[in-house]
Amino acid sequence: MESSQVAVFFDFENVAITAEEVYGRFDLGAIMTAAEQWGRCTIRRAYCDWTGFESYQQDLIEHSVELTQLFRYSARHRKNAADIQMVVDALEAAFAHPEIATFVLVTGDSDFSAVARKLRAYGKIVVGMGLRQSTSEVLVKACDHFVLYDTLIEPDTRTAAHRLERARLLLLGAMRTLLPQVETDVVNASQLKVMMLKMDAAFNEAELGYRQFRNFLEAQSDLVDLKMEDKVLWVALKPSAELAPYQDEMLTYRVTFSAAGLRLMDPHTRTGILQDLYHLLRDAPATYTLGRAVLQLKAQYDADNVLRSREEVQDVVRLMKYPDVFRDPPQSWQLDHLTLQPGLTAQDFVDHCECAYLMALIEKNITIQPDLLALLIFGTLDQEARVERLADIAQRTYAGKSAGRPVTDCAASDWRADFQAPLLQEVLRDLDAITLEDAPSLARATELNDKGLRIRTTDFEQARLYFLRAARMMCELLAANEPGASRSDLAWYLASYCAASAGAYFFRFDYTRAEMYYLAFFVLAKETEPVWDKVQRLVEPLVSFYFTIAANRHQEMLEHPPGRTHPARIAIALYMHHNLNVRQEWLTLAQEMYATNPAIARMVIQRLEVFENTTQIPGARATREAFQAIAAESGEAVQNPGNRG
Q1: Which DSSP string do the residues of 189-219 spell out, in sequence order?
Q2: Which stretch of DSSP H or E encloses residue 55?
Q3: Are strands 186-188 and 224-229 parallel, antiparallel or unpaired?
Q4: Taking Cα atoms as reference points, which of 581, 536, 573, 517 lies closest to residue 555?
Q5: Residue among 96, 4, 83 nearest 42 (CA)
Q6: Pairing relationship of beta strands 224-229 and 232-237 according to DSSP bridges
Q7: What is the pLDDT of residues 506-560, one digit of tens each?
Q8: Domains in the chain, CATH or no CATH each
Q9: CA distance 632 to 630
Q10: pTM
Q11: Alpha carbon of 122 to those of 70, 118, 125, 474, 552: distances in Å?
């Protein structure tokens, strides 16, 4: 790397103005130090109207940066001139200096993504450098590597501490995963990094300030020993590198958050996105669904050259699913337009959303330690009081979600209170009748559930037994207030049991019992509940089979197989069927489903509308109108979707 030649091009005004706004001054030295890690910087050019940046000229001269003057005619003209001149010079350097292997583009402007792609096409390595607040994701993806200026200077140590602590725990976890798989007590460093990325795709040693993965490992000398043999780097875990008690607790917290679909991330990024989301929903009530809010925020970030990936926005928006921040609780995140509760401030909104982490722990009966959670969630120990505040909000919110029962009545042992819907009573009788063959444990319940998941499409009978035993075991653990046991996992196991049971009875031609279990599944599979993420892929196939009961009861064969056909297409075939008894049977089934789970029914109606407006499938409009008539007649179910479940 030392012999490689590098060309550095600064879109100076782009980065300097933002750096001054955020950090007070632009640190040119930090940029040049990072660029020199790629090789010898033989070309160094900066583009700007220097009449407004005289204070930086001496610093640039000391770093041997050639200043290119762009005269001021108008604001827009100056920007175009900088872009064009920098692009021309970069491409000229690529042809005139074939010895230059790496091009560093110091900018965040998406306009430079085209030249980045072209340089890569010429075989050059392209490294982008810019600020998080003024960098387009389009540019990031166009580069081979991208270095955030924020990570080079890091004035607030809480973010750096948060990332490093997470990386160290990740290193320990990966080592303990790999060591049982090898015959010796050492692990290949390349395999170790692959495992760390599998466990956390966001890991990046460069963001921690290390040029290479080896440098990161060398800095963790209290955890690992390194040795080089035959040009291969081997990593050994030090005997003294046992997880400290607080790290054990943090690992438990991490696993819980991951299982709940909650990602830990840089606290500044998380708070910023939540604040932007608040203003978006406050300024345009009843305008955005959750998905459209994500798209709108992402579009705003791209337009403003703010570096936020869609995944980051989606991860933050997921926090909003847990608290009670909406005037009318939605039935569906996909379909319902969101309006915030009146009087909710931006800080209230952020607090209620960030308390989702605490709700995940409360739901699993896991002890809350404010000091450790402050370090994990906010990257600093001085946020203990904030964690305690969030825990109080989480307790009250969790109580509200538990049918309004007081917090003291919301213990894990009171799990039956959440499963009182009439359609679930037969399922609970099945649950009470099963006998366990081994002692209850979280590991055993997970193992039984995994076995059921592996065979649920090939052996309904055996799979339903696995799911039922897993559910029974979870009930025992909930009754004992076992840490880690959760009602959301119980709902998942029961929903899987209902799905497998419905399939078993369907293929036995016992359509009455099959219908009962399909409806029980629809009771449990609420889109606004955590279980939805676990069973979402089952919903459309189960609705298709459920609708098909209308034809099977009258010994009619449908042209489209239900397992591979969208339920809206099945609905059209049934409503337009020549046998009027089939049509009436489907209308009855549709009415039952709408009364049980309006959100799923509305998703079918939405797809019927798509068929009507795009592919123009015959009968799509008539079927949609029939389904919407059912919805109009079921107004009570729409207003109070919990009346059946």
Answers
A1: HHHHHHHHHHH-TT--GGGGT-SSHHHHHHH
A2: none
A3: unpaired
A4: 581
A5: 4
A6: antiparallel
A7: 999 999 999 999 999 999 999 988 889 889 889 999 999 999 999 999 999 888 8
A8: 5-153 (3.40.50.1010), 157-242 (1.10.10.1420), 247-409 (1.20.120.1790), 413-643 (no CATH)
A9: 5
A10: 0.70
A11: 28, 6, 9, 59, 63
CA distance 113 to 216: 30
Q: Could you tell me where the beta strands, DSSP code E, fall in 476-523?
A: none
If one counts every other C-beta atom within 10 angstroms of the C-beta of residue 244, the result is 9
* 596, 524 contact by CB (below 8 A): no
Task: Give yes or no for a contact between 266 and 159, defined as CB atoms under 8 angstroms apart.
Answer: yes
From the number of C-beta atoms within 10 Å of its C-beta (0-12, 13-18, 19+), residue 450 rates as exposed
Write the CA distances from 308 to 144, 161, 277, 397, 516, integer angstroms.
Answer: 18, 21, 13, 29, 46
Q: What is the pLDDT of residue 491?
A: 94
The confidence score (pLDDT) of residue 113 equals 92
Q: Which residues pair with 393 in a beta bridge?
A: none
Task: Say how many C-beta atoms besides its own lie within 10 A of residue 310's C-beta.
Answer: 14
- pLDDT for the residue 73: 55
pLDDT digits (tens, 9 = 90+) for 98-128: 999 999 999 988 889 999 999 999 999 999 9
Residue 142 has pLDDT above 60, yes or no: yes
Partnered with residue 171 across adjacent β-strands are none
DSSP 8-state secondary structure symbol assigned to residue 126: E
Mean pLDDT (the chain, rounded): 85
Enter the tokens of residue 42. Answer: 């033989």
Is the distance from CB of 562 to CB of 544 less than 8 angstroms? Answer: yes
* Residue 448 CB neighbours (<10 A): 23
Letter for the amino acid at 123?
Answer: G
- Write the single-letter amino acid at 589: L
Which amino acid makes up residue 213?
F
Q: How confident is the model at residue 176 (pLDDT cuts 50, 70, 90)?
A: confident
What the block records as the tokens of 575 is 């409503």
Torsion of CA 296, 298, 301, 304, to 10 degrees: -60
What's the pLDDT tens digit per position in 272-283?
999 999 999 999
The answer for residues whose C-beta is within 8 angstroms of residue 191's C-beta and 6 or more apart is 178
Strand partners of residue 6: 41, 102
543, 552, 585, 587 from 576: Cα distances, Å: 18, 15, 12, 11
Question: DSSP characters for 421-447?
Answer: -GGGHHHHHHHHH---SS---HHHHHH
Give the separation between CA 213 and CA 111, rounded to whole angstroms: 31
Q: Quickly state the pLDDT bin for 247 (edges 50, 70, 90).
A: low
Q: Does the pLDDT value for residue 211 go beyond 80? A: no
pLDDT digits (tens, 9 = 90+) for 620-642: 999 999 999 998 887 644 333 33
**Confidence grade of residue 241 (pLDDT, cut at 50, 70, 90):** low
Cβ-contact 604, 570 below 8 angstroms: no
- DSSP summary character for residue 25: S
Question: Checking phi first, is residue 408 left (phi over 0); if not, alpha (psi -120 to 50) or beta?
Answer: alpha
* pLDDT at position 321: 84
